[in-house]
Amino acid sequence: MKANASEEVVDVRVRRRLRELRTERGLTLQQVAERASIDVSTLSRLEAGKRRLALDHISALAAALAVSADELLGPSPPQDPRVRGRPRTYDGMTMWPLTHRGPAGGLHAYKIHISAKRRTPPHVLPVHAGHDWLYVLDGRLRLLLGEEDLTIEPGEAVEFTTWTPHWFGAVAGPVELIAILGPQGERLHLHA
Q1: Are 29 and 43 in contact (CB under 8 A)?
Q2: CB < 8 Å & 24+ apart, contacts of 7-16
Q3: Distance, CA of 65 to CA of 190 (rounded, Å)
């Protein structure tokens, strides 16, 4: 009976590592399945715990993920909690990531510096799926939100649906803020 419990722990750990390694590398189930020469539905069931992991899966999956079998079977290495993303600059804004890259579709926090020169909105204000959340640390932020033209002061936060046409820039000098953006907002603001 004790062997069964130990076997179950290994199975759970391998499923978790399989999903972790796949998402860390930004790979889809389809990509890993093709690399491992297994059916995508089999891989999905393995990750979900709906199918038992067979010995012949281990070497193929390890190779598909470019790790050793020991790395796939072993515990997750401790993750460095520090966020070390590089800043990106686009259209008068420099954005520093404050969160790790997580699963697709997740929210991410950024520190944003808006240049004093970013004062002219585009002729057509952008819209996209999701929500933006902004907290002004320093400076005065101009937020165009639909028909509204708002000035957001230090210490103030705003949250809005991004289906509303919007744009933000500086009023009279640089602005520092913290933003929480979804993937659609990241693409728009980082022009990625």
Answers
A1: yes
A2: 10/73, 11/49, 11/52, 11/53, 12/49, 13/73, 13/74, 13/75, 14/53, 14/58, 14/72, 14/73, 15/46, 15/47, 15/48, 15/49, 15/53, 16/76
A3: 29
d(CA 178, CA 157): 9
The phi, psi pair for 28, rounded to 5°, reads -85, 165
Whole-angstrom CA distances from 108 to 43, 100, 120, 145 are 28, 8, 26, 21
| Strand ranges inside 39-115, DSSP E | 88-90, 93-97, 108-114
C-alpha torsion 183→184→188→192, nearest 10: 50
Q: Is the pLDDT of residue 143 over 90?
A: yes
Tell me whether residue 38 is exposed, middle or buried, using C-beta atoms within 10 angstroms of its C-beta: 0 to 12, 13 to 18, 19 or more: middle
Q: Kindly give the interhelix angle for 55-64 and 29-36, rounded to the nearest 10 degrees.
A: 110
Phi, psi angles (nearest 5°) of residue 143: -120, 115
The answer, yes or no, to whether residue 6 has pLDDT greater than 50, is no
Q: Which residue has the tokens 């759970």?
A: 12
- Please name each of the domains of the chain with its CATH number: 2-73 (1.10.260.40), 88-190 (2.60.120.10)
Would you state the structure tokens that stand for residue 132, as one six-digit string?
């933006």
Quick: pLDDT tens for 170-183. Answer: 999 999 999 998 77
